Amino acid sequence: MPESRSFWGGISAINGGQDIPDIPQKILKDQAEFLTSQTKGILIGEVVEGVKPKNSIYSCHLRITVPALGHYIYNVLKINYPIEEIYPGTVISSHDEKYECKDVDEYEAILERILSSEQLKHIVSLLLAQASIELKSI
Fold first, then answer.
1. Distance between CA 113 and CA 132 in Å, rounded?
2. Interacting residues of 37 by C-beta distance below 8 A, sequence separation 6+
3. With left for phi above 0 and alpha for psi between -120 and 50, is residue 31 left, alpha or beta?
4. What phi and psi values does residue 113 have, to the nearest 5 degrees?
5. Residue closest to 70 by CA, chosen among 6, 23, 134, 5
6. In which element (H, E) is residue 80 found?
């Protein structure tokens, strides 16, 4: 009997994250890790994700959790994109500002604009200050 063969073409297994393309989910997870690292774990960057089956939209939410403040959660932004295409995507900030991004470059520029905004820096500094006070009183 002849050996079975795959008709899937050039599909290869993703090896330990090395071959993962710059999809919105991965980029958000990287930013969440940067936040956690830069604040030495006082603020935890998290990505919560899911699929809306009705319209095949993938949704990723970037949020900040503050363990020292009773696990307070601040929602930073979310991106919705077609699971089978990735772009175009829609980024919605915590202040309901909506941005459309047609490719990874636009997406990264929008993320940088939101994450480095004075408004978000102010919120992060307040969360850090309050968490630090709580940590000192323990």
1. 27
2. none
3. alpha
4. -60, -45
5. 134
6. strand 72-82
Q: Which residues of the chain have pLDDT under 70?
A: 1, 6-7, 9-21, 138
CA distances from 47 to 29, 36, 62, 136 (A): 6, 12, 5, 28
In the sheet that 89-93 helps form, which strands lie side by side, from edge to edge? 44-52, 57-66, 72-82, 89-93, 98-101
pLDDT value, residue 10: 66
Using an 8 Å Cβ cutoff, are 66 and 43 in contact? yes
Roughly how many angstroms between the first and final C-alpha of the chain, as a whole number? 70
pTM: 0.83
